[in-house]
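Before relying on records like the one below, remember that each one covers exactly one chain. Contacts with other chains, cofactors or solvent are not represented anywhere in the record.
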Amino acid sequence: MNKLFTFIFVLINILILSKMLNAAETAGLQFVLLTHDPKTVALMDSCVSQTTRTSFPVELTPAVNTVNNDIVTELSSTYLRGLSDSYGYSIKLTRTLAYNGTTFIFWKTGYSAGEIHYTKLDKTGKTVFEDSVNAESSGVTALTLSPKLLRVSTALISTGITLKYVESTLAQCCTVNTLLADTGINCIFTQIFPIFSLGITLNNAGFNDYSYDTIKESPPTLLRAAVGLQAIPFLPDCVTTIAYHKGVNSNNEWYSAGCENRVSEKLLIRFGLKLYDGYTTYAAGGSLRIRNFVLDYTVNTTVNGTMMHRAGINYSISSAVYKETIDDIYNKGVEYFESGDYVNASIMFAEVITKTPEHADAVRMLTIIGGKLK
């Protein structure tokens, strides 16, 4: 029944998006829809494909899953310093339905860029007055729907779709409001070591054109494809992602790669690079977990050599039911392992880590199974 539901869900996605794609795209919303989260920037948006240990941002891929009855509230704030001081925030509320495991995520993000200062002169060249305007302010209000994780042989498959309402104002004079959509699929192959994942996402497909003042534009639709590797023998705590990004109706394309390494249960470090139009830019950062808080920092370069600094703080609350359900899945994996059924055991442990990346016991068991299957 769940497979039939997922098939119908994917078919609806294809039919909807075939109506939404436009024939042309220009630059307007490309800047508005850039990611500002320090974790995502540190990996240069390569984290389209999720592995068994790390779930990546819903802003990049809607193919996300949680365990039944889990409610997660997440609040985060970001400060960006570079060409100007900018601020961002995000709110995420997740609910998974008990009867079929479908996950709903309501999320909202906002971003405010720095000020542009200007001076008005009279005919003699004397300053009449000085003023400033906000360079950009934008917000996204979205709902993501992702069916229950599917097990097909030794693969874990997730799908999803996001509908998002985008509001953007440039220089306090040009405003646009439009409805966009994302859809994606992610496959985790648990019996390939290193553990291998493949993700494909279509971002920012639009229902119609929009206008900044009198300038008519089409949504900056992006096709992203990425692979992820985990449990590399000499780097067991490292997740590596490599992605290709292509403008659907433009010549824009680039490559990016990211690496996230778990130094300890509380500390993560990240590195990333991006190849675009003959330029290479770099990023580095890390996260420190303190109870329910996570402190993030990232520094990255731009094509003109400017250094951009991002600092963020994240607070999340999850229900007790979530931990109990995770323990049930983990214990089932242990039972499979002790009976010698390593295939089903790895699927159980992989599902645990998909939901709780910090679950060290599940990571260790997957590594042990990998050694036995060599």
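DSSP finds six helices and 19 strands in the chain.
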